[in-house]
Amino acid sequence: MTRARPIQNSPIGATARCATERNLLPGQRSLHAFGVDIGIGRYKKQVWLVGVAPQRRCIGEIRISNLDSGNPNMELLQNLFKSQPLIALFATIALGYLVGKIKLGSFVLGGIAGTLLVGVVIGQFGIDIDGGIKAIFFALFIYAVGFQGGPQFFHALNRRSLNQLASSFVMCAVGLLCVLIAAWLFGLDRGLAAGLAAGGLTQSAIIGTAGDAIGKLGLAPASIKTMQTNVAVGYAVCYIFGSLGPIIMVSWFLPKIMKWDIRTEAIALAKQLSGGHAELEPGQFNSIRALDTRVYDIAWDSKAVGKRALAIDTELSDATVEAVFRDGKTIELTDALLIEAGDKLAVTGKIDLMKSAAEFFGKEVTAPAELSLVLENREIILTNKALNGRGVGEIHDHASVATRHGVFLTAVKRMGLELPLLAKLELKTGDELHFTGAAVDLNRVQSKIGYKISAAAVTDFIFLGVGMMLGMLIGMIEFKLWGVPISIGSGGGCLLSGLLFGWLRSVHPRFAALPVGASNFLRDFGLAVFVGIVGISAGPQALVAIEQHGVTLFLLGVAVTLIPQVVVFYFSYYVLRIRNPIEALACVAGGRSANPALAALMAKTGNATPVVAFTVTYAVANVFLTLLGPVIVGIITKNAAP
């Protein structure tokens, strides 16, 4: 029988030598054991692994020794975490997000990856957290992801975006193929392969969908536990380059190979979308989009005398009479009101029109102390199908002066990203339109566009409950893909139900309300709790797996990160004929659902031109990359030994 000696004063991850007795009876096999010292501060903890000697590697059970009994502070902390595991969980989240803020040059690890790494360290205390908590918060996270992406996902499925959709599908397919080939060549088990996909393709949700699928394989609990840990290990090892790789590809490597000047190309695209207006350099701003309110003293020879406010709006186009101050008081502004000499008019409009406004009205003066003008910033979700696919300039030109009186569009957001506010920007159902104007004017326009976001300030828990329940039921469905049994699990089911209810909300605003703030909280906190518990539960097993497979996994992660991007870029450029450089690069970033890559690309472009193509591919990739988890678990047949 093997007797393993612990290491003294060894670094993290050091392995003890085995002292194997050679006096074995016929038919007996020796067991190997080796220890791993794990440093927590200046304190250590022994990890023992046992395996069969001929295999010369640890494949077996992990037994954790107690912390150094001579250290009362560590014992106190261990007892606290074991008696109140939720304290350990929240400590993991707090420290994880703190670690995630650390910058290495322009690279930031991020809160989720930081939480996983801190969870592995805190997990060395042997903390047991109810798995039901992990399942609940992951379901909430994935439902919120689907809910937020639902409107854009379904509206992205159209002929106009066909080539961009195809680019996103190919990215998911090539990524899956790379993972399967790597698993076959290097003998990865289901957990390591799924973790390779989660980290190499930077899709954190795969951790949950793959772990859920592994849990339904009907294998021994020890084997399931090992493979679920390996999912987290693969993610942790591959995630850093998985995030860094797309940044390098879209902001440097691909433009270098194609000899593109990203800034020049972005200016040209912005000029095209704006109908010929030039794009400005970084640090400059286009004042035509800035609004201002000024007060004019109407003289007897002013062009405004004797005219109604609506007639003045027609002549000035994008400037509006907001208030009339006469004889020391504010006059109610009606269509029948005629402007008189001696009136003071409050006029709101774009800054470049203020010069012509001064020529029209007369002398600009300081606003009287008694005059107040209250305007409102309002966000309206576009639900009117008649406006879907139409350009901003087209809608402006076709709307009557009476309709757009006093209302100014200041921003357009899609999936939380601000789009370039240009004349040829096509609006999509589900877009957030930001307006400025008086409440009465905004109310008039709102009825023709959609619904106000603040109108959904209360969560509709009926539909939230129904949506979660429907997702769980969908997750119970099993089907076969090329003879391989596949189940998307509760995670995939909640993703699909979230997509459905998010789309339902966009077309029927009275139903399924889930405010943006609430859905953001469910998404971010749900994933943080889930990943924190994964790291804590993996604990010492994760460190051992990293020691065994770390270098191999890292190199495979590099391949899984880079190969799909190169293949898809050239496929998109030459086959799908996405020839505009900014759109081609944005499709690469979006097909990977790589937000850091988008940020890096926008830093190079100096404007928001990449966002439109990114949102289309991102909406599709976010769904299909998430569903890769159960597909990988179903196709790969190798299980980890308990």
How does this structure look, described?
- With 642 residues, the chain is α+β, with helices and mostly antiparallel strands.
- It has 21 helices and 19 strands.
- It has helices at 72-83, 85-100, 111-122, 131-156, 162-186, 190-200, 205-215, 221-258, 262-273, 309-316, 354-361, 392-398, 401-404, 439-449, 461-475, 489-507, 516-575, 581-591, 595-605, 611-626, 628-635, and strands spanning 3-4, 18-19, 31-40, 43-52, 62-64, 103-104, 107-108, 291-298, 319-326, 329-331, 344-350, 362-365, 376-382, 407-414, 417-418, 432-437, 450-452, 478-481, 484-487.
- It has a five-stranded antiparallel sheet with strand order 10-9-11-8-12. A five-stranded antiparallel sheet has the order 15-14-16-13-17.
- A hairpin with a 2-residue loop joins strand 3 (31-40) and strand 4 (43-52).
- Helix 5 (162-186) packs across helix 20 (611-626).
- The radius of gyration is 30 Å and the shape is elongated.
- Mean pLDDT is 79; it is low at 1-69 and 276-289.
